[in-house]
Design a protein that fits this description.
The structure holds 2 protein chains of 2 kinds. Chain A has 5 helices and 8 strands. In chain A, helix 3 crosses helix 4. Classes of the chains: A alpha+beta, B alpha+beta.
Chain lengths: 186, 181
């Protein structure tokens, strides 16, 4: 269990499946994600019998401190030599948008990535139109590094994909040591 | 066979094995690629033998030959995505005698023309290490635009390096080459 200030990150459970199934089929939720096709319950989005989190792939459920399951985060394309990983997040419970839960989940996962997995850099890609997402990632300490022009086709047109990255020392400057007793921001 | 001005691109043959094997183990060549580990002859042979045929989903992998028939390197389009109509480009001029003579850019332009004109791609992108300035100049000449810099995204030779993202779009390339794709 990774403790943040507003959320905790825990391993995924088969019981999460139904909620995730409804989220990934909600066009409002997937609007800025590269999930185009309707997805069946229990497919790749949420393999119930998938491997446990490890260095090759980390997927964790986001829970509020009250125990409500509101989304998921992951680290993918984790590269041992470069010490890099890509970060993904989905807040499926829309009533929890714009209230700091996403940012807290991202910071909590970054703390784990730097403080436990010994990564050096975490990056992500975000559709240029997703201003709320970009603002959130900036607040977490990510910097805009590249703009892949016309990288994604969705909703009838091409979008730019913005690449953002954060380095371990930048994280520690902003959020304190990657390892902190109790896990939360001071 | 894709004809360029200085080179042609053809499918890979088993006869390429000894050259490919030497190139992918030559640190002067691979330091510019994300290939760190030595590769055995049998692995290289298996790779050539088991490669599925070139197509959109398998990717397009070609040997680069001079017009005199000398095999000097390889180039490919990979990770082609049909919805986004994009793919990544990779290239290696393994025969160092042919560096800095325009063969790499001719092969790149020839492959871009194929990617846009035959595979119906809209965007072709690549990653290049910050210390590979020769390649960056080449790609710019071919029509790639620098789109950003991934900070400390690659580790090699004892330290972290930035990785430059470059992209070529179909309409820009057509304008540059004075052709319709």
């Amino acid at each position: 269990m990774l403790e943040g200030r507003l959320v905790r990150l825990r391993a995924t459970e088969p019981a999460d499946r139904e909620r995730v199934h409804s989220w990934v089929n909600d066009p409002e939720v997937t609007r800025y994600l590269t999930m185009r096709y309707p997805s069946t319950e229990g497919d790749w989005v949420w393999p119930v019998d998938g491997p446990p989190p490890g260095f090759t792939f980390v997927r964790l459920a986001i829970e509020t401190k009250e125990g409500g399951h509101i989304g998921a985060v992951n680290l993918h394309e984790i590269n041992a030599e470069d010490s890099t990983a890509g970060l993904g997040i989905i807040i499926g419970a829309k009533e929890h948008w714009d209230r700091g839960y996403g940012a807290d989940a991202v910071v909590t996962l970054l703390r784990f990535a730097f403080g436990e997995m010994n990564l050096h850099r975490v990056w992500l890609t975000v559709l240029d139109e997703h201003e709320r997402g970009i603002a959130c990632y900036r607040a977490c300490g990510f910097r805009e590094e590249a703009r892949r022009r016309q990288d994604v086709y969705r909703h009838g047109r091409y979008y730019d994909f913005v690449v953002m990255g954060i380095l371990r020392d930048e994280f520690e400057t902003l959020h304190g040591a990657a390892y902190a007793e109790g896990g939360s921001d001071a | 066979m894709l004809e360029g001005k200085l080179v042609r691109l053809r499918a890979v043959e088993m006869e390429d094995l000894e050259r490919d094997f030497a190139w992918v183990n030559d640190r002067e060549v691979t330091r510019f690629l994300s290939m760190r580990y030595p590769i055995s002859r049998v692995q290289e042979e298996r790779w050539i033998r088991d490669r599925p045929p070139n197509d959109f989903s398998n990717g397009a992998f070609f040997a680069i030959e001079t017009k005199d028939g000398v095999h000097i390197g390889n180039t490919n389009l990979m990770q082609a995505n049909p919805e986004d109509r994009k793919a990544a480009l990779g290239i290696m001029i393994g025969d160092k005698e042919y560096w800095s003579n325009g063969y790499g850019s001719d092969a790149t332009v020839t492959l871009l023309r194929f990617g846009f004109g035959e595979m119906n791609l809209n965007r072709i992108w690549l990653h290049v290490f910050e210390f590979n300035e020769r390649a960056q100049a080449c790609y710019k000449k071919c029509g790639f635009v620098e789109e950003g810099r991934l900070r400390q995204h690659y580790y090699g030779m004892g330290r972290y390096w930035d990785v430059i993202v470059m992209g070529a779009l179909r309409d820009e390339f057509a304008k540059l080459q004075g052709i319709t794709t």
